[in-house]
Amino acid sequence: MSGVSAAIRVLLADDEALVRAGVRAILASSGAMDVVAEAGDGREAVELARAHRPDVALLDIRMPRLDGLTAAEEIVRTVPGTAVAMLTTFSEGAYVTRALGGGATGFLLKSGDPYELIAGVRAVAAGAAFLSPKVARYVIDEGLGGGRLTREAQARARVAVLSPREREVLGLVGAGLSNPEIAARLHLVEGTVKAYVSAVLDRLGVRNRVQAAIVAYEAGLVES
């Protein structure tokens, strides 16, 4: 094997051609990502995901024929090897909570920093969760209901049951690091990190890394 990593294969779906062109250019600038297919609506996105089986499907939320949330659910269900990340705007923040349960593991802003987009795609491709910091704050402040102080107190109570090492792992999950990156940061083997992540999800009673990341943000374990 050569020492060169394969490019991350991306499916890009947005009904605006200009947006697709901009996102494609940003991903191409990374030198490690290849847009293998583009879709102008959600139904086409699902079909292309099944045909190309990309590493990441990057989906707009509002699209014709089939909205991005429904498309995400179908891709997660029928193309299990493809990670899904949503492109969103603040006006669409209320939809993010639905996508949490649908299997999406990334939430990125169209208006965000290009580095954020590249980092987000890279993170979800590696099996990690990634929330744009602005999206995460918006979801926590506006999208989950209840008072912010109450949610913070509840989150801190939930993470109090974790060991110091588990809280450390949770904070890194919230920061969007993959298992290999967490292992390198904490000087652990990857198998040990996987065990920690599994234990954290179980003890917090959450279904996936994105939900765990929300708890990490609410509990103050992730720097803004």
TrEMBL record:
GO terms for molecular function: DNA binding. SUPFAM superfamilies: C-terminal effector domain of the bipartite response regulators (SSF46894), CheY-like (SSF52172). It comes from the Bacteria. It comes from Streptomyces azureus. The keyword DNA-binding applies. Residues 9-125 form the Response regulatory domain. Pfam families: GerE, Response_reg. Gene3D superfamilies: 3.40.50.2300. The modification 4-aspartylphosphate is found at residue 60. Residues 155-220 form the HTH luxR-type domain. InterPro entries: CheY-like_superfamily, NreC/VraR/RcsB-like_REC, Sig_transdc_resp-reg_C-effctor, Sig_transdc_resp-reg_receiver, Tscrpt_reg_LuxR_C, WalR-like. One of its GO terms (biological process) is regulation of DNA-templated transcription. Keywords: DNA-binding, Phosphoprotein, Transcription, Transcription regulation. This is LuxR family two component transcriptional regulator.
